[in-house]
Design a protein that fits this description.
This protein is mainly α and 326 residues long. The chain contains 17 helices and no strands. Helix 4 packs antiparallel against helix 8, helix 7 packs antiparallel against helix 9 and helix 7 packs across helix 10.
């Protein structure tokens, strides 16, 4: 990951210009006019995924598509939450700790791109909902959503108090999104073209701006008072872990709502028939699978395993929680 120096205005400006030069357009750079190919998977299922030995090829396709939708919804929600929390985690921070006009321009561009990414994933969900005869609200009844939740508000409070929890989540999600595409790329021919294109474009911009979250973490670490800094090192990452993990685990339980949609489209009918299969597993088995071999979901449940974030946490001697209990 390219990491410019926080106070090197020339390199920050070059970094910004590169991002602006290669930025993609949400309307013109995607094949939105085409239908989603529902005969193709969204994400490859690993051989050791808990359901793989117990379902047929068609059911594997449906599970792949459901997990793919969960991935899109999770990224959409987390990047949307960043935009909704812009005042607390960016505007108030930069007003209190100004760096340079170049850094501020870089930050504003980061938020523009994150909003665009959230909109892109939302467009895919809207398109999928239309093709499967449900409303977006009905589709989201089985997917992770975060909008204005208590968890999101807790992140804002942490930012207001000088904490880094939200930026730690942002740093983790940036890395996780990059890894998702890397895992998808070898299977491009078997993946729906629009789904693949969306993650490819997302990957391109994430790799260009992923270091911004770490610049914000560096700024907060450097400028905040010693008592806040010490408290932040012990609590912020644990807070980000607990809130992020409790959110995703709670939202995954929404799959029981598939029963309400089963008569709307074969996609929901086929998935609802898998609920009894899932119920045959113990809670411990399911939890272990989610943390270890579920595509993307395992990444988001183990944020401390992300390479660059882990390095930052080690350098700051930040406390962790999940690494000790899993």
């Amino acid at each position: 990951m390219y990491m410019p120096k926080l106070y090197d205005e020339k390199k920050l400006l070059r970094y910004l210009k590169k991002q602006q030069k290669h930025a993609w357009n949400l309307e013109h750079d995607f094949s939105w006019a085409n239908d989603i190919d529902l005969t193709k998977e969204f994400v490859p299922l690993p051989d050791d995924f808990i359901l793989t030995p117990h379902i047929n090829e068609h059911q594997k396709l449906l599970v792949s598509q459901l997990i793919g939708l969960m991935i899109n919804s999770s990224i959409c929600e987390l990047e949307g939450a960043l935009e909704r929390s812009k005042k607390q985690c960016w505007i108030e921070v930069i007003n209190q700790y100004p760096v340079s006009p170049e850094f501020e321009a870089l930050g504003e561009n980061f938020f523009i791109e994150e909003k665009k990414h959230s909109d892109a994933f939302e467009l895919f969900l809207e398109k999928f909902a239309r093709q499967t005869n449900v409303t977006v609200k009905e589709l989201k009844s089985i997917l992770p959503t975060l909008n204005e939740s208590k968890i999101e508000k807790l992140f804002r409070v942490n930012s207001y108090l000088g904490g880094k929890a939200l930026w730690m989540v942002v740093a983790a999600v940036e890395e996780e999104s990059i890894e998702v595409y890397k895992k998808m790329r070898p299977y491009q021919d078997s993946i729906d073209p629009i789904y693949f294109q969306l993650h490819q474009k997302h990957f391109e911009e994430e790799t260009r701006h992923a270091s911004f979250a770490f610049l914000m973490l560096e700024l907060l670490e450097e400028r905040t008072s010693t008592p806040v800094k010490l408290l932040s090192r012990h609590l912020d990452f644990i807070l980000s872990e607990v809130l992020q993990v409790s959110w995703i685990l709670g939202e995954l339980m929404k799959v029981v709502n598939l029963e309400k949609l089963k008569n709307r489209h074969p996609f929901y009918q086929g998935l609802s028939e898998l609920i009894p299969v899932i119920k045959n597993f113990t809670f411990t088995d399911v939890l272990k699978s989610l943390f270890n071999d579920a595509p993307f979901i395992s990444l988001i449940l183990r944020p401390g395993l992300n390479k660059h974030l882990s390095q930052f946490l080690d350098e700051q001697k930040s406390s962790r929680f999940l690494d000790k209990v899993i």
